[in-house]
Amino acid sequence: MGMKKLIDILIDNIVYIIFGGMFFFVYLSTRKRNQQHKEAKKLIEKAIKSGVNEPMTLHPEVDPVLCAGCGACTKVCPEGDILKLINHKAVLVGPSKCVGHGECERACPVDAIKLVFGTKTRGMDIPRLSGNYETNVKGLYIAGELGGMGLIRNAIKQGILAGQDAISKLSSDAADYDLLVVGAGPAGLAASMTAIAQKKSYLCIEQGSFGGTVYNFPRQKVVMSHPFELPLVGQKKFESNKVSKEQLLSYWSEARKKVGLKVSEQTKFENLEKIGNIFSVKTDKGVFKARKVILCMGVRGSPRRLGVPGEDLSKVTYNLLDPEQYQGQSVVVVGGGNAGVEAAQMLGDPKWNNKVHLLVRSETFDRCNEDNIKRITAMKQKGQVEIWFNSSVQEVLKDQIKIKKENKIEELKNSFVFVFAGAEMPHKFLMSLGIQIDKKFAEGLGN
Ligand SMILES: Cc1cc2nc3c(=O)[nH]c(=O)nc-3n(C[C@H](O)[C@H](O)[C@H](O)COP(=O)(O)OP(=O)(O)OC[C@H]3O[C@@H](n4cnc5c(N)ncnc54)[C@H](O)[C@@H]3O)c2cc1C
Ligand code: SF4
């Protein structure tokens, strides 16, 4: 058949070809959508079955009336499958994996997403804070993770906002400092730098070392860090938003040097009393008077405990600083979230020759991002770690550990136990300072 004849046939049948093409396109997109619906529903069912269908912290709430079903929010989350489209609407399918990055909220072109604490039926306890992070005790602020919101970038942003607000309301009452900042993690660092930038007197106290929780991350841990801006230093963006713990600490140390930030390390905040407009702040190194106080204490001071016999043995720890210290050991890591899974990866590195058991309470990894799941699954396949789902510690003994696995008690040889079960909010302590704790039912900060 010649080319002309072929063209004639195509022209004669153009209407059928166009309709056929359209029909095929509609068929393919419907099939794809149905598949996506099925996957999304499976994820919801899995979360319900594993009992992890409730968000742990700040998470997106989608207004179905506003949602245009564009799917932008489903593609931007660094933690993986958290939002998915069902019937053209974004739905929270992996609530417990959400750590509150807020990328979805920023990606939504129609403002259908709001980041909230708690759900309509299950409240979450959060210190009462104004939009500028001031508590109900005037002049006393909370910035960073202690206020309920995780992540380094949030801590820095809140430290700056709290510092700026506190400085804008300074009185002229006699005091040792304009600002007293408790904690030298990212929030405390940012609040103190704000005081320096505005030429105000400050005291930053830290019970441990400069760097906060990041200082206690395991060696060479990869930290996800979106761009942030420090007063007098400017904006910092790390390549692919990833950086090692050491590089991040070194960047903060350089910034600290540049602005001349002083931190009183190994100084513990114990209590405070408000006398008139001034705070009398008690520490283990003395009492200081400050016009404003910003608590940037994070939550890691109170790791959640297992509550089992033997937990007080010195072989049970709640962080992993240097995996190299543990070689040729039988170790158990408790916790299927990112912290636990990353610790198991480090301890399971073949060069340390450890026997690692990772215990996960639920039947799958439901509090862990996709990258970590892939890495730990690959290690399991190579025999570098054992993963026990539906498992929990029953008792820790000197050289053994008793574990309940699928309703059976197993006993393992054991030299160290690493517990990564999250942290308790120190609400009782905050209440003793007069700070109101609210139960949030699907509400944002300051609602
Ligand atoms: C294992 C793990 C992995 C994480 N990975 C990431 C990540 O990849 N990306 C990310 O953005 N976030 C990550 N986070 C979260 C992030 O580390 C925190 O959100 C952030 O450090 C909070 O900063 P902060 O300044 O509020 O508190 P912190 O960094 O916790 O600092 C609080 C400081 O206050 C001090 N302090 C506490 N009580 C007192 C007291 N009484 N007196 C004096 N000082 C006190 C503490 O010693 C501490 O140094 C991770 C957290 C963990 C646990
Ligand atoms: S980005 Fe906004 S409009 Fe688009 S699917 Fe997500 S919630 Fe709906």
Description:
There is one protein chain. Strand 2 (83-86) and strand 3 form a beta hairpin. This protein has helices at 3-12, 14-49, 72-75, 103-107, 152-168, 186-197, 245-259, 338-347, 370-381, 427-432, and strands at residues 59-62, 83-86, 89-92, 113-116, 124-127, 140-142, 177-182, 202-205, 222-224, 228-230, 234-236, 242-244, 269-275, 278-283, 286-295, 316-317, 330-334, 355-359, 386-388, 391-396, 400-405, 408-413, 416-419, 437-440. The termini are far apart. The chain has ten helices and 24 strands. With 447 residues, the chain is an alpha/beta fold. The chain folds into three domains: 3-122, Alpha-Beta Plaits; 127-302 and 426-440, 3-Layer(bba) Sandwich (FAD/NAD(P)-binding domain), CATH 3.50.50.60; 316-419, FAD/NAD(P)-binding domain (3-Layer(bba) Sandwich). Iron/sulfur cluster binds at residues 62, 67-73, 90, 107-108, 110, 112-113.
SSE topology sketch:
Elements: H1 3-12, H2 14-49, E1 59-62, H3 72-75, E2 83-86, E3 89-92, H4 103-107, E4 113-116, E5 124-127, E6 140-142, H5 152-168, E7 177-182, H6 186-197, E8 202-205, E9 222-224, E10 228-230, E11 234-236, E12 242-244, H7 245-259, E13 269-275, E14 278-283, E15 286-295, E16 316-317, E17 330-334, H8 338-347, E18 355-359, H9 370-381, E19 386-388, E20 391-396, E21 400-405, E22 408-413, E23 416-419, H10 427-432, E24 437-440
Parallel strand pairs: 6-15, 7-8, 7-15, 16-23, 17-18, 17-23, 18-19
Antiparallel strand pairs: 1-4, 2-3, 5-24, 9-12, 10-11, 13-14, 14-15, 20-21, 21-22
Helix pairs in contact: 5-6, 8-9
